[in-house]
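Worked example 2:
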Amino acid sequence: MYGSARPGPSARQRARGERGRRRLRFDGWIAGLGFSGGTRVVLGHWPLSPLGPFSDVMVERPDGERLLLAPSRRVADFVAATYVFDTVRIVPVEVEVEVEPEVEAGAGAGTGAGERVWSAAAGPLALRFAVGRRGGLGLLLRAVPASLATRPAWCALTDGPARLLPGGVRTRGSAGGGRREWYGVRDLHAIATASASYEDQDLGTLTPVTPPVRFGFGSVPRRPGLARVVTTVELGE
């Protein structure tokens, strides 16, 4: 015998339930790079997060293997529950940022005002890249007040224009475990030069991030770049 049907939750009850979900904010940088050997790399550097300061690296190999390099089990469990990987490795992840001296006129391809050089070591991966100039999109992003740029409602509004960028970029979407995410992008610089190795094998020269990476609902921009980001993750029920 079947029990009597019960009415489903009202729109107000559903909205109240959604508002009750816990939201976590991660404040830092995301770098996306491609290499001529076919490997694509996404570096996350998060000085401010609910998990404490940390950096992690997502790697997609030429054969399609998706690899997470995380500094602790706690970070690995959280990231792997949000994105999709074939392999997860717990390894030390160290990131350093330095400013190179100003490049003299005619003495190279630097920005002319000093370059920020990032170095990352994560288990089998060694990465080094120089950050170039801020382009037009970066200038536009910088003009948006931080209090607005990091709101989920604003990220939802910018998702449509973001999809017009090459590479399958998204600023909101559904993640693993019933989670939702919003990316509040506050700045964007091109990556001027880069080198990387995986298990002591050179990955080749810097190239666009093609094909797009497949860790989550969206990829990084096709053009290698460093984005200043506040990521909001809403946990599932």
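The two ends are 31 Å apart (CA to CA). Residues 22-234 form one domain.
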